[in-house]
Amino acid sequence: MRVLYAAESGSRAWGFPSPDSDFDVRFVYAHPPDWYLSVMEHRDVIETPLDDLGLDVSGWDLRKALRLFLKSNPALYEWLVSPIVYCGNRGLGQELRALAEQGFSRRALAEHYLKISETKKRKSQDQGGMVGVKKYLYTLRPLFALCWLREHETLPPMALPEIVEGIALSAEVRRALEELLEVKSRTKEQGLVPRSPLLDRWIGQATEQGEEFVKGLPSRKLPLEDLDALFRRQVMAESPSQTGDRD
């Protein structure tokens, strides 16, 4: 198989790694053409266990990735806009980002951000007024991305600092977030911090605003013809060197 695109997908790409953060590498790959000409469909995911170097690596076959792209899959979108790209940024990544701008569903993204934030909020159990700094940020980040969607009506970037710079926030919330990020930068993944009443209130307000915002968003569909053409081009590419573009 050939790796067509590979990028960082975790806290390193989000802009708030801990000293012991793993490398969460996600990639899209393609098999030779004959692999797709079979009566039976084969396994279309490659997964590797976390190794001693902190590498968590997994990937999707191109056909699976494009089927999910057609449904405006939020996880794939975030791979494509990751600020840390290992290969394929000027090939498959560039083409899919251009298609996403044309037809990616903001509703699908907004619903995803609300669901993720609520899930992380439930998991960030209060431990005597303390909360996991990682889970706290995982609750906040999707809500900041949702604010970007609401204020700009464009697809949000992945890195938290870039999102926050482009949205309206009070000076107090910005300071509280900066303090949280500073603690995260020097705290291990499972480290705890005191809960912030200010950030907790903001989470509640942002969630309510997000729920109202989602109700008015239309559903959008990506052009299947363009994805079919892209699929054929990538699968029929003769030289693996075509996938070696790097930033």
Describe this structure in a few short sentences.
This protein has helices at residues 11-14, 33-36, 62-70, 74-80, 92-103, 106-123, 133-152, 160-165, 171-186, 197-215, 224-236; strands spanning 2-8, 23-30, 45-47, 55-61, 85-87, 130-132, 192-194.
Number of individual domains: 2
Helical coverage, percent range = 40-55%
Number of strands: 7
Largest sheet: 5 strands, mixed
Strand content: 5-15%
| Class from helix and strand fractions | alpha+beta
CATH topology annotation of the largest domain:
Beta Polymerase, domain 2
Strand order of the largest sheet: 3-4-2-1-5
Whole-number radius of gyration?
A: 19 Å
| Helix/strand order, N-terminal first | EHEHEEHHEHHEHHHEHH
Low-confidence stretches at least 5 residues in length (pLDDT < 50)?
Answer: none
Please report the number of helical segments.
11
What is the mean pLDDT?
Answer: 88
Determine the N-to-C terminus distance: 22 Å
Q: Write down the overall geometry.
A: globular
CATH-defined architecture of the largest domain: 2-Layer Sandwich
Broad CATH class of the largest domain: Alpha Beta
Description:
This protein has 247 residues and is of the alpha+beta class. The strands form two sheets. It has a five-stranded mixed beta sheet. 32% of the residues are buried. Helix 7 (133-152) crosses helix 10. It has two domains: 2-104 and 221-243, 2-Layer Sandwich (Beta Polymerase, domain 2); 106-215. It is globular and about 60 Å long. The model has no long low-confidence stretch (mean pLDDT 88). It has helices at residues 11-14, 33-36, 62-70, 74-80, 92-103, 106-123, 133-152, 160-165, 171-186, 197-215, 224-236, and strands at residues 2-8, 23-30, 45-47, 55-61, 85-87, 130-132, 192-194. Strand 3 and strand 4 (55-61) form a beta hairpin.
